[in-house]
Amino acid sequence: MRHILGCTIRILKISWRLSMLNSWSVRTRLLLGFGLMVVITFMISAFSVISLNESNLRFSNYVDGLDKRMGLMNDLLLAAQQRAISARNLVLITSAVERQAEADAINTEHQKVKKLLSELVAGVNVLPPSAEGNNARSLVAEIEKIEKIYGPVALEITRLAMSGNDKAAIDMMNSECLPLLKKLVTSVMNYKSFNSSLAQASISDSQNEYKNTRNFLMFFCALAITIGVVLTTLIVRGLSRALGAEPTVLSTIAQRVASGDLRPILEAKMSVAGSVLSSLGEMQSRLSLLISQVNTSSAVISDAAVDLSAATEQTRIGVGNQRIEIDQVATAIHEMVATTLEVARNSEEAAHAALNANLHAQTGGTMAKDAIAQIKRLASEVSKSAAAMAQLKIESLNIGGVLQVITSVADQTNLLALNAAIEAARAGDAGRGFAVVADEVRTLAKRTQGATLEIGALTANLQKIAEEAAGMMEVCRGLTDETVIQVSNTGSSVETIVGMIDNIQQMVRQIATAGEEQSCVAEEINRSVTSVRNIADDSALSCERTASSSNDLAELGAVLQRQIGKFTV
């Protein structure tokens, strides 16, 4: 009992400690609580089984010990009395048959008394060496002692009566048998009284043990009920603290959040920190903030996509204008090439005319007038060449202006492509394709800038050559005028004219060479302009792709805003 009571006290201490361990998980607390209830139930069951076993053992000891000895003693007394009655009848009756029957009865009862007495002696000898056991053994020894004297007396009376000596038998019965029978009955009654007191004490002990067992069981039941109530209170309180609300309320709130309703959860404001309801409230606030941020970002993306689409449209228009300007430059360069070829042909003709003039000058002064006329015509052609060179210079300057426009457009295209790449990087994965397009546009813009620089260099060379050719034309025109004056003043200076014609012929050759070089440069410029036009075509195509990507991005932003609009913040 003390061990069980100590276990109970330990269980109560564990229950009290469980109330302090709020940091444990709900599963652990439930397992410990129900485990403790199982242990208490097992202890109550074990105590009940042990108590029943002890009660059964006491009952078995009573039945097999005290009650059995009481039965043996009653049978012994009855057999002794029956033996005495048979002995009395033996001396009173006269019928031989009846006398023999009584003698047999005496012998039978005597054997029965001996057997019962031996069993009674064996029963008290197994008792523990206690006061009750010693008293029982002494009382049984007294009965055995009297029986050892009384048994032979009864047999002797039977022998005397059967031998016909009834008087001696009656005397022995009166003198010895009756006193011994009284002593035997007294000893048996003493033992019965002692046995009754032991039986009463055993019954009293059993009743006390029953009361103790009943009290212990009632105590354990009350303890189990108390612990169950405490554990139930702790578990319910812990679950309420962990959940913050009923599971149905939590399920309703979770379904409301899952359906897109992100309005503040009023119940979460009064919940315990760290509970499921508090966590749901925190999740709702964070989701609401996230949805607001995503909504703002999608609006920014949509606005940026619209701005980018407008900028791309402007770029496309600029590239179209650039193509028109480039076509005009190509036409002008083509005309310049034709003019240069014409100058070259005129230079060849001037050289041929100078050669003829030299031949005719050698024949005489009669051909001076023809030479003067041809020189005048040459001067006219030189003037035309000078005018063409001046026009070439003007067109070269126009080309430089066009190149500046192309350079400005390329810079703007590069800047727009850079801004588009930045916005695409902000858009993340959704703007990755747009970033690739922006990078291609920026590459084309860089190529346009490089080609523009090359055309600018070629145009500068062309302007320089045109200026040199114009200067030469001015020199030729001055020489031609002087030749005309000299030939007009004197027709006899043929040798001087011939020398001057030689100089003119050399100058014309230089002009022809310069014209050929100018033609080559013009062809190179024409090819560069064609390349610039191709680049402009590529830029226009890239602008169209950029515009398409911008529209897709704007549509994606609109779809994202529609999806976010399903949430109620």
From TrEMBL:
The keyword Cell membrane applies. GO terms for biological process: chemotaxis; signal transduction. It is a multi-pass membrane protein. It holds the Pfam family 4HB_MCP_1. Residues 297-533 form the Methyl-accepting transducer domain. One of its GO terms (cellular component) is plasma membrane. The chain crosses the membrane at residues 30-52, 216-236. Belongs to the methyl-accepting chemotaxis (MCP) protein family. This is Methyl-accepting chemotaxis protein. The lineage of its organism: Bacteria, Pseudomonadati, Pseudomonadota, Gammaproteobacteria, Pseudomonadales.
